[in-house]
Amino acid sequence: MFEAAELGHKLSKEAFKEQEAGLRLRLLNCQLELGKSTSPVIIIVSGVQGAGKGAVVNRLNEWLDTRGLENWSFWEQSDEENERPKAWRYWRVLPARGTIGIFFGAWYNDVIDDAYLCMDDGRVETQLNRIDDLERMLSQDGAKFVKLWYHLPRKEQKDRLEQSTHDQQSYWNMAKEYTGRKKEYARFMSIAERIVRATDTGVAPWHIIEATDNNYRDIRTGELVCRALEEAIRGETGPAAQDVHDTVALGDTDVDDITVLDTVDLSQRLEKKEYRNRLAEMQGVLTELAWEAYRQQRACILVFEGWDAAGKGGAIRRVTQAVDARLRRTISVAAPTDEELAHHYLWRFWRYVPRAGHMRIFDRSWYGRVLVERVEGFATPLEWQAAYRQINSFEEQLTERGDVLLKFWVHISKEEQLNRFQLREQTPYKQHKITDEDWRNREKWDLYREAVDDMVSRTSTEFAPWYLIPGDNKRFARVEVITTVVRSLRKALGG
Amino acid sequence: MFEAAELGHKLSKEAFKEQEAGLRLRLLNCQLELGKSTSPVIIIVSGVQGAGKGAVVNRLNEWLDTRGLENWSFWEQSDEENERPKAWRYWRVLPARGTIGIFFGAWYNDVIDDAYLCMDDGRVETQLNRIDDLERMLSQDGAKFVKLWYHLPRKEQKDRLEQSTHDQQSYWNMAKEYTGRKKEYARFMSIAERIVRATDTGVAPWHIIEATDNNYRDIRTGELVCRALEEAIRGETGPAAQDVHDTVALGDTDVDDITVLDTVDLSQRLEKKEYRNRLAEMQGVLTELAWEAYRQQRACILVFEGWDAAGKGGAIRRVTQAVDARLRRTISVAAPTDEELAHHYLWRFWRYVPRAGHMRIFDRSWYGRVLVERVEGFATPLEWQAAYRQINSFEEQLTERGDVLLKFWVHISKEEQLNRFQLREQTPYKQHKITDEDWRNREKWDLYREAVDDMVSRTSTEFAPWYLIPGDNKRFARVEVITTVVRSLRKALGG
Q1: Which of B331-340, B367-376, B414-423 has the lowest mean pLDDT?
Q2: Which residue range forms the structural domain that includes residue B245?
Q3: Chain A partners within 8 Å of B94 (Cβ)
Q4: ipTM of this predicted structure
Q5: Residues of A with CB below 8 A from B100's CB?
């Protein structure tokens, strides 16, 4: 979830200056308009230690008009607060309609602390429940949430924290909050992922912001706040927002246009001979592992998504060749049947949940909701935004019996796709594989790119990770996929 | 929560016959219309053992067209089901759009079982979370829920279960489900209350049906199903339903027009001398208890609601007289201030949550949301329907530190109110207490009566019970209130 945000986002000083000017003006105008609306705006600033949350808030205070803007941090509880229900300290400072409240951590501090201190699970779940209720209740009342999570790669955080011990000014960073946690980066991340996932709702989604470069961090923050203000002004909160949303621009374009797909090294290739050897080796192992999974009654679900002509089919075939036909089944997901249309969109996938010990391969999947349905407008923004959490919950249920769920995005460059399309048109036995729709989809490449970026960052979970497979070289992609399956199965089966 | 349903609802054979004919016709017509809509309807039949859930479902099958209607019970899990996530067995039988599915127990069986078997709290909370997600997700997709909880008073259940052991036909009732639970009525009720409360949402509310009289039980069921079908046909599901709801008739009038207020014995009175003695005694005890509560740092919140001129003020004064002024504060809730209007409706009450050890008295309260705001249309039906759960959650938070929260509805007859209104008009120093608004409210007596019935049955909880105080005799009411406060404080303080 968070790793997907490690894209090396950067903004030069000049680019920052240039964007800042326009952004400030927009922010101030929005704030003026907001004052006439009935929406309070709640900005929640959270994330890893050392990410510069304080600096971000200072920046927002510099950019916005301080009238109608209040900042709240929640450190030690006062005795007054201690004597009342936990939520009291948040309720007392909720912003009034037309104003903005910036909350450091807000109610997330408590639940992260409790989870970190291994409080019992019932308590943590109850708090997650209440957060969900609270945010839903307030947004139905008109509130607009901007939940910002600032992320740093492990190494970067370490460097910063070591630096800051020599730095008097950062006293608060060190002394307060998460002292001691720096050694437990992985554990903290795992807890944070659970909390963020559970509270990433349609009405109050999280935005994960890479905080390595300060310029990028601040401009990205300003952009997200500005968009939220615009939505609040247009009245796009509350349960009636669905209809309004239909008219909103789809994209959540980032300020520097880098997506998670840009991290994929497409130059990787395998020569024919090495390909043959490694494929044969992996297929041999997989055959055994599939039987072992059957003996241990562990199901295995593989999800394949990717660009048209990326080579999903070829990669799937290399897997299925190695698994006994009695143990596996491939589901090709195309347009839904009448019966499927008569149900909730997840129903058609619940149908195909495999029995214990079996492998099921989805050639396209429930991710259609946040890919094609989003891009083509078949799902409303409120629908596809709500889908991330629905999908995460679905996948959590699929895996909590110890089953394996792996998700592959087979990636190719736009040029490589063009080559393959043209080749298909010229090769008689491949012509059936290329249609007008493929060409139409290709025109929407950038919209899909954004959708994939959001999808990967919001649904890469510990229990169901995404693997981005470089597909320009088909041989490399096939071996990479089957190797990943083998590695994951081995780990799960303790082999 | 459930006790409030023990009203002795009854329907004669003739009344049943008469109502049945009309109901059947309406049901069939609705079902026909539903077939053209995009809403699936999910009827969940749950409740205590012996309440005749099977008989109810048979009746519905008799009344409805069996085409487009399916019944599902969820006893032993098949091995197929065992090998998949728990939710799979429900997803596989979800009704298609335009059809009706009757689910025995549905997903509530699992969570009740787990809570009953003392599975860890995290697991129970997670399931409650998932139920909430599932029902919300399906209703946003157009599904209409009818959740029916059949209740029997303790004695009635005992009689029935003893009867049924001699009755071959009831084999399933006895052998399956909750065998062994009959001895643990109280514990089962407490668990059921928690589950029902946690899942009593605006989009999928529970209806508690008294099942002692079969005729009443069946007609009431048919009525509720019929209304749900009508709502589904009008498209009143999903997030956009809010606007549509505004035009819907408010009341949830019961088939025999008995409400919880009819259980209050208004003939009870106290003579002057006994009143003086008992009041003095109770006030003396309360003075001590209030200081003891301060020493133990337990807060005490008293909520007073009731008809205009019911004598709330007088009852409150008898309490405050006994409590040191430094320890208590009375909040008279009138029209909200500008500042309060600029926040969520609960904000103004969160402000007044007392510190530890203090007593706070609310003369009218957050229940305005489901009383005046409901009756006057200040809150939309979706808003006030959602408020029951919001209020329950608020009160749960108020009490989980061990604080005491008591709620009083001071009840008077309509005639007594008239007497008091007239007396106020005739008595110079009382004239300020009677306004045109009081007379206007009086005209809406029946709407308020329904609202009170719903309020009491849906927000009487273990941690924050309602007390219905007979108010026709002011002396009786005052002593009853203060005695209840004393009894509850004593229990809480272990005195």
Answers
A1: B331-340
A2: 3-258
A3: 343-344, 347
A4: 0.78
A5: none
